[in-house]
Amino acid sequence: MVLLEATCINGLYYIQAFPQTVSPQAYLGIRTTAQLWHDRLCHPSNSTTLQIVKNYSLPCTSLTLDTCHNCLMAKSHRLPFVNSSSVSSFPLELVHSDVWGPSPIVSNNGFRYYVIFIDDFSRFTWIYFLKCKSDVLHVFTRFKAQVENLFETSIKTLRTDGGTEYKPITNAFPQLVHQTSCPYTPQQNGVSERKHRHIIELALSIMSNANIPTTQWDEIFSSIVYIINCLPSHNSAIPYITLFNKQPNYSLLRILGCACFPYTRPYNANKLDLRALTCVFIGYSTTQKGYRCLHIPTNKIYVSRHVQFDELSFPFKTSSSSIASVEQSSSPQNQSIPLSIFRSLLVQECSDAVQHFHSSHYDGPVTVPEVQPNITQAHSPVSVPITSHQASAQPSSSSDSARNELHEPTRSIPSDRNSPESSPIAAHSESLVSSPDSTNIPSPTAPQPLISQQSASQHPMITRTRDNTRKPRHFSDFVAHLTTIDHEPRTFTQANAHIEWRLAMSTEIDALAANNTWILVPPPSNQTIIGCKWVYRIKRRSDGSIDRYKARLVAKGYNQQEGIDYFDTFSPVVRPTTIRVVLSIAVSHKWLIRQLDVNNAFLHGDLTERVYMSQPPGFLDSTRPNHVCLLSKSLYGLKQSPRAWFHKLSSTLISLGFFESQYDPSLFISHAHNHITMVLVYVDDIIITGSNPLLVSSHIAHLHTSFSLKDLGDLNFFLGIQITRTPTSIHLSQSKYIHDILVKANMVHAKHSPSPMSTSISLSNEDSAPFDNPQLFRSIIGALQYATLTRPDITFAVNKVSQFMQHPIENHWTAVKRILRFLCGTIKHGLHVQAASNLDINAYCDADWAGCPVDRRSTTGFCIYLGKNLISWSAKKQPTISRSSTEAEYRALAVTCAELLWARYLLQELRVIPSKPPTIWCDNIGATFLASNPMFHARTKHIEIDYHFCRERIINKEIQVRFISSSDQIADVLTKPLAISRFNYLCNKLTVTLPTTA
């Protein structure tokens, strides 16, 4: 049998590699192309298609292959990255930037992000730490101003990844070329991405070597960047030398995390105190000639040049007990997670973008901003490392020099509010509180701490777990760092990682159990079962410090159905004007003013409907896990809860001899034994005052028997309003609230404005481009509306800008920022309430005729005084167009009359009798005549009839209207923007002042 045939030529056998194939007869007469074979062979590559056609002699009339769109769509892939050949020729020609974060944990300074700016020419880097990404614009503005001033040249091009945090920079600096990488292509911003990795790798090495707590990551990153700028970059050039043309002094460097001993004699209380403290070296000061030294017991950082080091000792590493004590002395959010977890979380975030970036792009160094306390914006950048001519490596022996260069601690690291000895939950106990005897409500033991070693809980209420597994302790710590104790958690998981919030939840469950809020029953088949969730709030004092942590169990009332599990929902709250009236009377008579807070107020309301709710998250009854809660008391979140609570409180007060005011249902009055007692109610916040302090105390004691009250003593902080009292006056201000608004708008350090609105700008809807963040606009306006409770000087300006909330434009936002700048300069101003022997009522009313350029409507403004105290004011656009200034003033007069009569009737209930009828002061003679006489019929017959009621009151001598010159018209400030001098004069008349001292 012949297996193979070959031809012998010159002793060599030639074998045909591919046997000749004979074209089948079926192929004859068929016109085929290479493109047809490409489709038949299921779209292989072009080379493979041609190889098959040629090697196997397939019939083909054309070997040309067209572009196959199907292949392009199905086989699309990323193209290889080629190293960039472009090189900058001078500093700031190109600056790379990127934001890193959020960090797995929040630093001790409250930072979650950092942003770097890298000079492409020298690869010198600046770093800023951020609390939120929105700070990038503010940081870049400062960075740009500083480096352009330093190098006397401007930044030509900024290269970023195109993140939304950089969009405001493009709008703010149109002359700047902003290059962005393609979407989902971080490799094009490889310089910044590789820098992130370089910083993190060196920082983790240092933190591992010295066992530095991970909450110090910003301090370490700052120092690492400081060092990197002194290390050779990818081209062996040192960025610091390239940029500044001078040598850094390496002899000043010490091992980060080692023990150090700063000279502290200037701070000693007596001459026998030690002259130095044992601290931890955590970095280099970049705004002072010294080292940064952390004193662990006090959590303070000292900056000093007179420091001695022990580079063989590492305080965080020497003993586990010392580390444990540090962690216990810090707040829970500042406890460190294991470095291995921290390392994996950090490296993972920057590895994806770097893995495709060629290693030749490795570049070095960066400069770091100095960490400053109590600053919400990013740090200032550090310009240069310490050079040999700037500082000495050896401490000086001169005490005078020490006094001059040893600085106060720059900041304090947050410490725990409760020491382990004083806190009942300092150790991770399994049960936070004792179990009450109750068969109807699950026991209020808080969720168990997520630790690896769990003690057996005998309590029937335990946190639900899956297959009885528990997460390791370090995962609990990691979750704890996602939400700091200075911030309110959004979910139960975040709150459960902190002891403070677990204790707060236990307190809430305790209150529910003591109040018999529900009983557990099997779920009904024909009834809606609503859910519930935890809401967390940090209660603060008037100075902004933390008072307590509050966890509230809230029912998901949005699932309720009207007519089935709820009916009426309305519940009144006290009017701000009523509060000011009562305070004016109390101050004038020097009465004691007490403040009460009802604990879990809504839980006291009785329900008449049958409402079923699921068991609280984290507090599932292990013996009855499928049961639901049948509510017998109202709960926060239910639609009828406010009404049920108010009905319960009002019934109790009426039983104690009070009656409900006809003019404000949240004001309760008692006339007993020739003494008066007044109670103001705003949901669960209560003010009580009266002529007899013993009677006031008696009423408080009676309320204690019905409700769980917190007696807050003398009135000092009510509804976000700070109250400062002297023997003869009260000052009402909202400085803390206004500061929060400024923080939200990023205008805490804005330039001050002398008035809230310019007289040269007329707002309309057609002046400029639409504002790009209407949600922020509406949010700030809503916040400013509440600020007008104690700031009548901004009432008109706020009312004016609020007319454009639907479609705000840039000019409207500019007007809002002017209001904020005015508040920034007058943040401590507020309403002054002083004692007065005369409690007559006087009102001022004014109107700006056709003042609105959009619809030509007029603006009504009025202010009402009780004695010398401003109790009510308003600035509001009139509902219809007025045909004349007299008509506009007449409408304003009627609105003022209605408010004035209400105040008069309220005072009659309080048995405060003015010496003369209330007076309205108007600066329009025609309006005063029209109010007293039915004249000008042809020009007034179209005015709505209800506006004429003030004429009847004048005839009955219930009120009187008097003319006043326009120069003395106080309400003028409530109708239009004014010149600065005129505005300041009228603000004094509005009694908006700084607080006075006793």
Automatic annotation (TrEMBL):
Gene3D superfamilies: Ribonuclease H-like superfamily/Ribonuclease H (3.30.420.10). GO terms for molecular function: nucleic acid binding. Residues 412-422, 431-443, 450-460 have a biased composition (Polar residues). Residues 464-473 have a biased composition (Basic and acidic residues). Residues 383-473 are annotated as: Disordered. One of its GO terms (biological process) is DNA integration. It comes from the Eukaryota. Pfam families: gag_pre-integrs, RVT_2, SH3_retrovirus. Residues 87-256 form the Integrase catalytic domain. Residues 388-401 have a biased composition (Low complexity). This is Integrase catalytic domain-containing protein. It comes from Rhynchospora pubera.
